[in-house]
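Standup, Tuesday
Yesterday: got the pipeline producing structure tokens again.
Today: sanity-check two examples.
Blockers: none.

Example 1:
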Amino acid sequence: MFSSFSALSLCRRGAARLAAAVLVSGVVAAGAVAAAGPAAAGETSQNQGGAIATIGGLKTYGAAVIHGDGGDQQVSAGLFEMSVEGGGTLQTYCVDLHNPTQRDAKYHETPWSGTSLGANKDAGRIRWILQNSYPQVNDLAALAEEAGINGGLTEQDAAAGTQVAIWRYSDAADVDAVDPQAEKLADYLQKTARSVPEPKASLTLAPSAVSGRPGGLLGPVTVHTDAGSVTVTPPADAAMSGVRIVGKDGRAVTAARDGSQLYFDVPDDATDGTAELTVQASTTVPVGRAFTSESRSQTQILAGSSESTVSATASAAWAAQGAVPALSAVKNCAKGGVDITAANEGDEAFTFELMGIEHSIAAGASRTVTIPFQEDQAYDFTITGPAGFEKRFTGVLDCKTQGSAGGTATQTLSEPSPATVGGTSTGTNLAETGGSSATPLIAGVAIGLVVIGGAALLLTGRKQTPTRD
């Protein structure tokens, strides 16, 4: 672990891109919720459950050389370590070589569809590499023999070789490990890898939002987890509101397992409102799960997990009459935007506006609308209705890897600093893989927000995804 970090560090970027100021309309819904109750929860990110962790720095690493139009750049390559909220440690590799990494960035477990892996035909090969190399295979003598490497492997060689092989598939990067043993491992892993399926989430709830009338069971919300069991926490104001979390039989539930169905039991006389349940467990997160940060910090993929705390939440809304919407959101990298799903369990249509287009969800119906955003664009929008109904969604669309555009790379280590091949070092960054000083200001500005109702948004230009021959 490293003793000092820069305030903002960059995984290798090329020449600076100009920040563009554009006017973007906020998303405001004119709803038809008669006598809607209290605001339907505040800010909602697209975290679908699982582990939440804070990145530290590179733990085990070697050196690699990236070959590009601007010359050869030497960078660090290896395993990161992240600390899990509630307890636990994760080991990860980078799958977004040229993107920025921010100090102490908070990450959450994310499906591949919400990252660059979703559109990467080689994502399954990356997972195979993770399953068949260090640290999942910690018998380095056996790994060296399998790869045909004479002389064995150190942990640093194994980490560097594994990272280099991953970059060749995640970023289509022209990259080599500096150490010959690590390079042989990278070549072996790249040539041997085959496609395997995306791993399931460690813990998630589906759907994440339900709605209905008071006096009945709202749901079901189904638990999906690889943990043996999960604890179920009722709404914070359950004692006052009378809302209970129950099974289909109406009995109160405090624990559940994979496949369990949970319901919100709302009293007949409950005033219109909302509630939220939380489930939590301790488990090892499946190898190959992606981790992303809303601060645009470099995407990671899981290589190893201790027993770690994972959690997920679901919300319910109810009203005695009129439309009763349930709103949820998920990033859809295939469509370049955010999918907003609106379900209406009321007796009137729920009408709302997205990007100047009016949408209407009939009573008893559900519909998904995709809101398009530019790559790297931070967004912050709220869907509202009469009588205080509102739900806010925030995040950053990060669906592509950043191709090299040349320029000068900075070094990545505080001590010791590796030599730059064909260039000069211009600064010191967070211990990570790759780096560039060309755009720290722009990278920071890119975390601007879309202001509700229309305002200036500062963002960087669209990234270009490298192609493979």
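Example 2:
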Amino acid sequence: MKTNILYTHKDLVEQSKSGDRNSQYRLYELYVDAMYNVSMRILNVKEDAEDIVQDSFVDAFKNLTSFRYESTFGSWLKRIVINKSINHLKLKRITLVPLDHHEYHLNEEINDQVIAYDINKIKTGIKKLPLGYRQIINLYLIEGYDHIEIAEILEITVSTSKSQYHRAKKKLIKIINTP
């Protein structure tokens, strides 16, 4: 008779640290879909996202001894995926939309009206945003990073992160409201 043993995430991490391939595979199964979605939101290319997720897991398992439970394993892994995804974009030389060359100006006011939008319209609208805006929207609204963290991840200033976010939000609302 086979017994089912329930493992906590911490147990799986500890066993993975010692090289247990079954535990590593269980962690992989637990997180692969979520990490793929994170990478896809940034890269928007299925094959690139799949490659980044695989590389992220390889790096995570190689460096698992440095994981100190200062966050959850999922948060730690997500940070690896986000950094690798952004680095991948940098290698392709895709940059943020330059502030000086954009139609919006910093002194414009944005009307923050509370309007309920259809989630599918929002997802479609995000995909239509320029890459730099899409990165900021994804990191801020979807991944939950603050502007200080975004500035660090994207190697930009905090004020650039904030202004890019407000411009991205304004453009997203415009896209959503366009029939």
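Quick observation on example 2: Residues 21-43 form the longest helix (23 residues). The chain has a mean pLDDT of 80.
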